[in-house]
Design goal:
The complex is a heterodimer of chains A (123) and B (163). The termini of chain A are far apart. Chain A has 4 helices and 1 strand. Chain A has one domain. Chain A is mainly α and 123 residues long. Chain A is elongated. With 163 residues, chain B is mainly alpha-helical. Chain B folds into 2 domains: 1-91, no CATH class; 96-163, Winged helix-like DNA-binding domain superfamily/Winged helix DNA-binding domain (Arc Repressor Mutant, subunit A, Orthogonal Bundle). Chain B contains 8 helices and 1 strand; from the N terminus they run ααααβαααα. In chain B, α1 runs antiparallel to α6 (115-126), α3 (56-73) packs parallel to α7 (131-138) and α6 crosses α8 (142-160). Chain B is globular. The chains are: A mainly alpha (123), B mainly alpha (163). Chains A and B meet through α1, β1 and α2 of A and α1, α2, β1, α5 and α6 of B.
């Protein structure tokens, strides 16, 4: 690199042409436009209250839907139990009456019969 | 070292780097006005993205890419201008402020350097970029940047040596 120090010094003595004063004005103007543009962009990026409102409505609707689904599922579950109980009662009632003399109805439940009722009901 | 975010900072930063930037842009365009357009666009973009002046390599990258875009966009006009210049020998604003004939000869020698060597010399001498920064701007290795610089200086020295 030392071989070139002389030519490097000569090159450094050369001064590049200065920019025109108009360039500073133009850049200043562009900077101002830029700032205004950035400000308006920030403003436009700000979410409006209407967006919040619709978001709120959406969330409320979704929550209501989930609640409704949960309730209906629970209801369905309870209904199934009722069916089972009813079927149990209805099917076991004659059994109870017939078995009244020998055994207590609470002590014996024909599991196969109940299962059969479940299956037919479910079908 | 300053951030270019404030109004006053950009002016001091720009006045410091503007001559070198313009010289850098003049490698691709004939007229000083076009070079100023390129530098303006690059500097405003650089400032808008809130870059710091120590990342100046980004500024030169922006100037280079905008200048190349300008050439592509305006190639037809540039060809027309080039032919008009060659026909009428139109005045082209000098890139340097000469003090004597030796400096004029040196400037002419720089003009005839291959573009890839000239841009390295311009970034190194008048913009004081390191080889690492130059390599970043050009997308080449530091060794390539350094060897281009050495070739350029050797060519300039040969041109200026008295025969």
């Amino acid at each position: 690199m030392n071989d070139f120090s002389e030519i490097e010094n000569e090159l450094r003595k050369l001064r590049p042409a200065q920019p025109s004063p108009i360039l500073f004005e133009r850049i200043e103007e562009a900077m101002m436009n830029c700032r205004e543009g950035a400000w308006s962009a920030r403003q436009s990026r700000k979410p409006s209250p209407y967006n919040w409102l619709s978001l709120g409505f959406g969330l409320a609707a979704a929550a209501a839907l989930v609640l409704f689904a949960a309730i209906s599922m629970e209801h369905q579950h309870d209904g199934g139990k009722e069916i089972a109980q009813i079927s149990r009662e209805s099917e076991t009632a004659p059994l109870r009456s017939s078995a009244k003399e020998s055994t207590s109805s609470d002590k014996f439940l024909p599991a196969g019969a109940t299962r059969l009722v479940y299956n037919t009901r479910n079908e | 070292m300053q951030n270019l975010a404030s109004h006053e900072d950009w002016k001091s930063c720009f006045s410091e780097v503007a001559p070198g930037l313009l010289l850098f842009a003049r490698q691709w365009v004939q007229s000083a006005a076009d070079a100023e357009d390129i530098v303006q666009e690059a500097f405003v973009k650089f400032w808008r993205r809130n870059h710091k002046i120590e990342n100046r390599a980004l500024l030169y990258t922006a100037v280079r890419s905008i200048a190349l875009d300008f050439i592509r966009r305006d190639s037809r006009r540039a060809r027309r201008e080039a032919s008009a210049i060659s026909e009428t020998d139109e005045f082209i604003e000098p890139q340097f402020e000469f003090e004597d004939d030796t400096q004029r000869a040196l400037a002419e020698a720089i003009d005839v350097l291959p573009c890839e060597q000239r841009e390295v010399v311009v970034m190194k001498i008048w913009n004081e970029l390191t080889f690492a920064e130059i390599a970043g701007v050009l997308g080449v290795s530091q060794n390539t940047a350094a060897s281009r610089y050495r070739y350029a200086l050797a060519a300039l020295r040969n041109t200026l040596q008295p025969r």
